[in-house]
Amino acid sequence: MNPQGAAVFLIDFAFSVYIFIVLTRFVLQLARADFYNPISQFVLRATNPLLAPLRRIIPGYRGLDIASLVLILILIVAKALMLLTIQTGGLPAGIGPQLLVYTLRELASLILDYVFWAVLVRVILSWVGVVWSYCVVRSYAG
Hints:
Elements (H helix, E strand, L loop, with lengths): L2 H28 L7 H20 L8 H23 L7 H46 L1
Helix pairs in contact: 1-2, 1-3, 2-3, 3-4
């Protein structure tokens, strides 16, 4: 693998993970999750450095954390610009409309991926819960 491909992979991976964590914070606030949970604490600590200044500028609206959504869009645009600069050596003229379409498509893809993984984790945890409760009942029964 060439160094340019490795850099593209690492930058893409780092941005994707952080965007996923910011989306998780948005979903946790939307679901009114318990923020004393260790996973929630990690998400809060990981997202606060970029989200706290943005919250001073962008207020919430009817319980929705708009600043998180704006941060997700900013991160998607930054990722696209950084990867495009690395791959092509610069930014082509007239990139605005294409960047807007890419950002909206990436956001829709991200939300669908998030729903897919949430359903998959929920299904797997439902199997674990059934097996665990069966083992507990069986150990008490005899």
